[in-house]
């Protein structure tokens, strides 16, 4: 099961903070799907994920929005 | 995406009110690319004012080409340009007015770029 995290309406640095908070709530190995409309999120969240030792599975832009799949590895 | 190339990052906080400070990051980053490195310029605070469409054309000092020409050369050379999203908010500059070839980014990106770069210069 993939946890959905809707971060639309939040702006830098909140999408990164919320992603960090929420990923800690799922077991290691599981995946979260983040949707955001902050234009910085498509760069910021994948960079945060890699830097924090997690895995970015997919980044998909759709107009103003971006959807990012992250697997919690630690 | 991993590369053996050395990386340089230039952080530009100076804006249109100090035109003499605007050329250096473009010239240095292009030179870094010519030296076989990867180069990025991150614009924040007043730095983003040069990224507004139509502004770089207005900067021309002495025998230098316009800033727009230098910016276009840098983009063509493969220099990556980043604009701080919250600086756009701070200065009331809509992100749709940014010149093309610029990525909008935020705090996590700047921190990450500083850590992954071999050298960082601030203007």
Automatic annotation (TrEMBL), chain A:
Residues 5-29 form the UPF0033 domain. Keywords: Transferase. CDD domains: SirA_YedF_YeeD. One of its GO terms (molecular function) is transferase activity. It holds the Pfam family TusA. InterPro entries: TusA-like, TusA-like_sf. It comes from the Archaea. The keyword Transferase applies. Belongs to the sulfur carrier protein TusA family. This is Sulfurtransferase TusA family protein.
């Amino acid at each position: 099961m993939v946890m959905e995290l809707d971060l639309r309406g939040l702006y830098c640095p909140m999408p990164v903070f919320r992603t960090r908070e929420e990923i800690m709530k799922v077991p290691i190995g599981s995946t979260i799907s983040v949707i955001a409309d902050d234009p910085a999120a498509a760069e910021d969240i994948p960079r945060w994920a890699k830097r924090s030792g997690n895995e970015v599975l997919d980044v998909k832009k759709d107009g103003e929005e971006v959807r990012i799949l992250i697997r919690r590895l630690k | 995406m991993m590369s053996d190339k050395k990386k340089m990052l230039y952080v530009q906080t100076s804006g249109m009110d100090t035109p003499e400070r605007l050329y250096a990051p473009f010239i240095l980053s292009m030179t870094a690319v010519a030296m076989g490195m990867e180069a990025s310029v991150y614009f924040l605070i007043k730095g983003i004012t040069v990224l507004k469409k139509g502004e770089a054309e207005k900067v021309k000092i002495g025998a230098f080409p316009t800033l727009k020409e230098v910016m276009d050369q840098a983009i063509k050379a493969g220099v990556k340009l980043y604009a701080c999203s919250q600086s756009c908010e701070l200065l009331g500059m809509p992100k749709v007015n940014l010149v093309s070839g610029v990525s909008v980014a935020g705090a996590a990106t700047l921190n990450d770029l500083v850590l992954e770069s071999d050298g960082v210069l601030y203007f």
